[in-house]
Structures are given as C-alpha cells and as structure tokens.
Specification:
Chain lengths: ~140, ~140
C-alpha cells in the first residue's frame, strides 16, 4: 500500500531533479498514459519524450505532491506542477519561445500499479489555465 | 468513516446530479462545504453553493448526465472519475466568462477530489480540461492570438 505512494514519490523526485531515465523506471515499459495535451500514449518511451519536452521548456519544472487517496493498487494524487518557462515550449499551435513566466498548475494524477511498476497513468488538468498563466491564451470567442 | 462509505457518498453525489435531486446532494454535504471548479477558479460555499455548483451544469446542459468510470476512496476522502455528456442548451460558465448556448454536444472527462469528514462532504475540487470543452463547443481561439 504505502509502497505505491513511495513509488510515485520516487518518480516525482527524479522528474524534479531532471533525471527522466530514473523517473521512467517507476513505469512499466507499456504504461498507458492519458493526459489532456497528448491524448493517450502507449509506452514509457512516449511518456518520457513528452515529459522531456516540458523539462526543456521549464528546466525547473516540479511535480509537487499535495495529498493523495490510495485504495488497493490505485493511487490518486492531487498536486501542482510548477515551473518557469525559460526554454522552447511545444504547443498544438507550434513552438513557443520562452516567455519567462512562471506557472502553478493544479492537477490530479491517477496511477494503477502491477508487480511494483506503474501500468496506467491518467492526468487531469486544465490546458487553458496553463496557457493563460504563460500569457498565451486569449479570451474564447463568444464568451 | 470507512473507505467504502466515502466511496459510496462520492458516487451518490454524482447520482444526485443525474436525478436532479438537489436536496439529496445538499444532504450529502457538510453545512460549510466548499466547492472549487479548478478550471475557472470559482469557489462556492454552503448549501447555496452546492445548488449553484450542480444547477450551473444542469442549466447549461439540461440533458446532461454523468457516468462514473472509477472511484478511489480511503478513510479521509474519495476521488471519482466520470464522463459527462450533454447538449449545450443554456448559458455556461467558462474560464473567460459566460458562454451562451451553442447547441453543440459535449463529452468530457472529469475528476473530482472530495474530502469527507464524519460522513459528509467537506470539500470538492472539480478538475477538467476546459480547452477540450471549448474546442468541442466550437469557441476555442487559436493560442497565441
């Protein structure tokens, strides 16, 4: 039980240090990751490339563990993603040069584990909150 | 309360939306409940807040229903994942203000974090991606404009 929380914290710590190889060791090679910006990814390599994109855009990017609910082999973590946009950021509209802005993005991560590795990972956050904090999002038309 | 009770209460809160049973929803919550919609930053409180929170969605999506896809619960809280689907037929609160009815269908993934105390919902934080929502409703501007 507590092992699942420890596993996720190891992933967070490694990501925060910028050690994506170590972060990836928490996941099964065929982990299924679903998140708003990328849709569904089917391997840890895809996830790693995606995570590396965020680290390139925000080298100080951190996953901050706030609270969690754990049941059986499933863990939900509520946290904040923080970082400063000092490198190129890939968005659906193309690459955005550094804005120098900082973000603090609330999220929920939901993990399931099998055999000591994370096998599914679903992420919930609001992309407009992130783009607005970066100064990249105008008001929606008609709103 | 047990994890099982907390999970059941999280599911009942969603069921009360589907049944438009506002009294039932209020009864599941503590008198000083706080409800946060993370994408808009809106924070609502108390029984009036519960009504505003749920009726806001119901008036924007009169045919709206939620379908629970997963519940994780422990002695202190519950996290519920669900799909919401409906037709946008009334004014909707968005991160950029109120959006008049577009008549478009919406299917969106939601995740709700509930803190429970003594068998009552004390805090609710609702997560969803408003970019997907506004994209489906056809009102998403291109980023960077």
């Amino acid at each position: 039980m507590a092992e699942l929380t420890e596993l996720v914290k190891r992933y967070y710590d490694a990501f925060n240090r910028g050690d994506l190889d170590e972060a990836a060791r928490a996941f099964s090679p065929d982990v299924e990751t679903t998140e708003p910006g990328a849709g569904t990814m089917h391997s840890v390599d895809q996830w790693k490339a995606y995570g590396a994109g965020f680290k390139r855009a925000m080298p100080d990017a951190r996953l901050n563990f706030k609270s969690a609910v754990e049941q059986g082999n499933t863990l939900a973590v509520e946290g904040t993603f923080t970082g400063t946009h000092t490198g190129p950021l890939l968005t659906p509209a193309g690459e955005v040069p550094p804005t120098g802005r900082s973000i603090e993005l609330p999220y929920i991560d939901i993990f399931t584990a099998e055999g000591g590795l994370l096998v599914t990972h679903r992420v919930y956050y609001d992309q407009i909150t992130m783009l607005s904090q970066l100064g990249l999002m105008p008001a929606p038309a008609g709103a | 309360m047990s994890a099982q009770d907390n999970g059941r209460i999280a599911a009942q809160f969603n069921d009360s939306f589907n049944a438009r049973d506002w009294d039932g929803a209020v009864a599941l919550c503590a008198p000083n409940v706080e409800l946060v919609t993370v994408a808009t930053g809106q924070t609502l409180q108390g029984s009036e807040g519960v009504l505003q929170f749920l009726q806001g969605w119901a008036s924007a999506f009169p045919d709206g229903k939620v379908d629970t896809t997963g519940i994780i619960a422990d002695e202190r809280g519950a996290v519920i994942e669900f799909t919401g689907a409906g037709t946008h037929s009334g004014p909707l609160q968005t991160p950029a203000g109120e959006l008049p009815a577009t008549g478009k269908p919406l299917t969106l993934q939601f995740c709700q974090y509930l803190e429970l105390t003594g068998g009552k919902i004390a805090r609710v934080r609702l997560y969803f991606d408003s970019m997907s929502m506004l994209g489906q409703l056809g009102v998403l501007p291109a980023p960077g404009q």
